[in-house]
Fold this protein.
Amino acid sequence: MRPDFTKIEWKLPAAAPVSRQAEEWCSAEHIALKSFYTRADLAGIEHLEYAAGIPPYLRGPDATMYAMRPWTIRQRAGFSTARTSNAFYRRNIAAGQRALSVVFDQATHRGYDSDDERAANDVGRAGVAIDSILDMKILFRRIPLDQVSVSMTTKGAVLPIMALYIVAADEQGVALEALSGTIQDDILKEFLVRNANIYPPAESMRVIGDIFRYCAAKMPKFNRASISGYHMHETGATADLELAYTLANGLEYLRAGVSAGLDVDEFAPRISFFWGVDMNHFMEIAKMRAARMIWAKLVKSAGAKNPKSLALRSHSQTSEVSLAAHDPLNNVARICVEALAAALGGTQSLRTNAFDEALTPATDCSARNARNTQLYLQQETGITHVVDPWAGSYYVERLTHQLMHAAWDLIQEIERLGGMAKAIETGVPQIRIEEAATRKQANIDAGRDLIVGVNAYKAPVEPAIPAVDIDFGSVRTAQMRRLEQLKRERDAISVRDALGHLERCAATGKGNLLECAVEAARQRATLGEISQALENVWGRYEAASRTIAGVYSAESGNGKEFRRALRMVEEFEREEGRRPRIFVAKIGQDGHDRGARVIAAAFADMGFEVDAGPLLQTPREVARRAMDNDSHVVGVSSMAGEHKTLVPQLIAELRAFSRDDILVVVGGVIPPQDHRFLYDAGVAGIYGPGTVIPVAAQKILEMLSAAVIAQGAPASPTPIAGSAEEWRSLHPEPIATVQAEPRSVREVLR
Amino acid sequence: MERFLGEFPSVSTAEWEAAIAGELKGADYDKRLIWHSEEGFAVKPYYRAEDLKDLACVDSAPGTFPYRRGGRSTDDWKIREEIDATDVESATRAARAAIAAGAEEIELSRFLLERSNELELLLANLGEIPIHFDRADERLFGLLCEHLGNGQRSARISTGCDAINSIDFAPEIIDAAPKGLVPFTIHGEAFEEAGATAAEEVGFALATGVDFLAAMQERGVDLDRAAGALEFSFAMGSNFFFQIAKLRAFRMVWARAVEEFGGSRSGELARIAARTSRWNKTVYDPHVNILRATTEAMAAILGGADAVMVSSFDACYRQPDDASRRLARNTQLLLKHEAWMGRVADAGGGSYYLEALTDFLSREGWKRMQEIERRGGYRKARIDGFIALALERSMAAREKSLALRRRVLVGTNQFANPAEQALGRCESSRMSKPKRGAQPFEEMRLRTERHATARKKTPRVLLVEFGDMKVRGARSNFAANFFACAGFGTVTRRFRTTAEIAEAEGDLIVLCGADAEYAKIAARLLPKMKALGRATPVIAVGNPENAKRLAAAGIADLLHLRCNRVEVLTKWQERLGIKS
Ligand code: B12
């Protein structure tokens, strides 16, 4: 009989009891997770009855969150010159953007003017070069600084950059108190992971204190610190580490502020955070929720009275490490998944990456797509209408709880070491991050973590990516010309006085560093000069190098390729009388050391003798050291484009000493169109993103044995796998342009 | 034990409301914070535990009745891939390639098996891979019964054969169907593509199923076997949480309905195949389709779909090639292996918002089904036009909201890229089926493109900015956005005198400034243009309240937020002679 549904009203069916047991699995954070969750999993969770807009802000810093106003779309621009950046900002402002974000080149961050020899490879690379007020004024020309919020990432050179920005605004006629934006002067993370610090930790913290004081008095709408977990995340930190160390850094800044004589409530509301958002979707959402509660707890314990001080506001960026250089259109979906997590986690602003960024700075096409990702999420998915929509989910709430406690334990560890500035000196937090990075690499190499297009589900033909190739040489020449002009036109005596004043301020501890720097900038002192004045007193900091042992093999030791590499090393040792020795080197101002460290750790575990060089070396220093160590191979990890200038120099140095028997191999971000150039320059092997480390080691060992044979006997005619020869045999014709490749991504998108 | 967060007391709803009132600063709560969805749900700005007080079954676990939380407790979803080859050999080849690259189920959408050896070839090649034949007839069923009868193959075979249209021969097929054959589908996605809201999709699919079960029962078919003969297919749109809730709600109402029929627990579980919606995909800015498909696939997974199919981003305008198919497949592989979406069943279960939505959609869905039952069941309601009328109404509302830009398609009716050209890559045969929301906009833009190719010149709109920076900027921006929807190029300029404006190049002149100044400027500008013998229309961006006054001053049109973009732009195309 057909039931008479017109008479059967809807009622909730009674649920059957939970009978099955959930399976358990373990996340990268070593957090135990289950295959399903029920209400029972909420037992013991304290935070369920918290809200948004009210401490401890579990569900967001604002009571209405995106229901009133969605997050700010904040894309980053890393153009080489002030002029091109300015044009880009003005286009975006015309298109409705009210916030802009400035990225500086590495030379600027490290306090070098463009005419400095040490910065020769880095001027205008991956960011805008700023030497003086002339550049800063061009950067913000016809941009109403009282209406547009400016976010600047600054590192070692925060003082001159802030000073130049303030003077530029002043000369535009904008009052200091009208300036709004964020300055990301989170120097502790430079020591932890990013490596663009200049001065030692204690002095760097003094700079922070002085900036706090200055802004509190004169620039109330400016967020002084954006404390970054993003960079830790990109260096390999898992969610718990990112959470803990970022907040521990925040705690250290709170203390710096207090000891600078400020009231917590005066400056805590101006501190904001910066998260990296990766692919483990719910983990990232939980991370952002947990962060808000821990921060509220920390700020409260620092004595804050104003509830606003306890609110954690954040900018987020989708993870760049999660982007693959292989089959790069897959990244479109990755970025979307990550951006969605950032939004559902409650970020206040967001930057989405461009899908080709593992290979090249973004192109117009990929940048549009990156921005559309956020527009799509805001305008088509309906997710903005409800605050913290996943709240209540048994899984998300449990994860938030677990992550909060895991991070808290790590914060306690830092506290026991005396706070972050001291902990950095012990190396403990750095090693934990490095360990996580090494484990991740080992899992990828062993095929336990699958990366679509990289170690699984590969594209049969790699689509070609139109790469952006900028003529950095001409950028540098133009910068140098403007520096000359500046120096011609300024009053040398007042510059000298202002710099002398700054130096005294640094030496005596009396006066405000930023105030002195502003005066120097006003007198037309350059960024390099201001930095140098401080360096005269404080010196430059050099981080100790270290290698971790046993982590890679613990994760990967059973792998076939790993065991094969081990055997080959043993064989090599039997024949040669000593183990193969590799010098893992970083040259230029490139501070990306994650890859180099992972390589060093893995090669050591495979039985190589490994020398891990310090960062920021010159080609000559590297060559010397390789000879002194009697290395068989120099492995350069090149991430910032130095492969085209500094690697050939390194080879020339070795040749000059008749040590071209030392093989030079290169890894890192090397666009395919540069391979021929490098092989022609004498590079023996190239191992780019996606390299399975034991396989690279095997190829290097094969070359080494071949080289040994070649010294005694006639060269073997068979090409060596993974070497220049092999590459040439596969690429008989030079690739003139990228367009000559089978299909470009742009075509696919059409 | 001391509480970790002991320093923070619980927050009451009254406190939260007070904080909200503070942020509203006197603005209207309902206008600013309540979202009235097309399903008729008034979505609140937040949900808390108290919103679930009466929902007892939220307590349940995945894999148990009433299946709100999914049919499985550990296993994850299957990646289904559509193969549209028309002959068995190329279909087999394509299917094998897809499987090797990560596909887990195959849908054959374009061909019908004819001969026994074709089926053998397929089965031999696809091993233990589930297969879905989108089209099916009696001949196919015959072949399947014959070949699957020996029970050697355990993987499912299903077909897209419409359950309700097959009622007459269904008993026979169900009776003969070997284990593993699911002969019929109830097509929720057909409702979606015809305009149905999420509530209607749930209700209409439910009513269809109820009618089918009733018919089978009447014909003496065992109820569990009848229910087991069905697969449900749904199209996932971009409204993230509603779409997740839709699948959860459907499983629950279905379980309840089957229970009323007297089915057993196993018969009560609906098996759902979800696909990314086709209605919202766009020809322009097609990579946004990748983004849409990504969240739509996520919604399907979080909603507990058993199989998910992601269409290629370019399927709406050309024959997808290997690269675009790979991208579609990889979207799911990423979700599985990198985002770990399959690791936790019903990850959203317990979410106050999602559970409240699920509850709403099940109530609404049930109500729609009751309405149809009152008319004597789905088949009768279809014949008497009730279904079609409801769908038409919903579709018209959707189309209107797109034209008025209350609903956005990024790159089509908002943030369009005027430099983008699509004419060259479109295969017109693929663009019209099934109906898509972007079509009226695309037709306009293609018209402009064709016109531009023929005349070797794109129509240019001159945006004249004056007055206060904020106002003029917002308005010229609005206008640029507006005209980009029809593929018009815009140039934004400021002038010192009206004489300069009169001489400036442009097929249309748009004044972007303060309302109060328009009449004044028109009074000076229009005579100067006339003196130059120029008939270029002058329009303005402003408040519609001033329309009459400005029309009297010679302003040819007034653009504003509530304009129907399709109508206004089509009108201006015609006036500028863009017709083809
Ligand atoms: C992580 C990362 C960072 C981290 C670095 C942390 C650290 N301490 O290392 C942070 C966030 C701090 C960072 C900062 C910056 N970054 Co960065 N960063 C990356 C990113 C996302 C991943 C690099 C990485 O570590 N991958 C993981 C490791 C394990 O892989 P890998 O290094 O490639 O190594 C593998 C292989 O290459 C090979 N390999 C590498 N070296 C060697 C050596 C040998 C001997 C062998 C055999 C093999 C080998 O084996 C490894 C295993 O497979 C890349 C983009 C990308 N997806 O690659 C950008 C990227 C390198 N960064 C870039 C830029 C611009 C910057 C900044 C300048 C941004 C800014 N303006 O602030 C700063 C500069 C920092 C500095 N001090 O120099 C650019 C460089 C552009 C260019 N080449 O012109 C890139 C390419 C991103 C982009 N498209 O814009 N970055």
Notes: Residues 52 and 352 of chain B are 7 Å apart (CA to CA). Residues 2-52 of chain B form one domain. The mean pLDDT of chain B is 92.
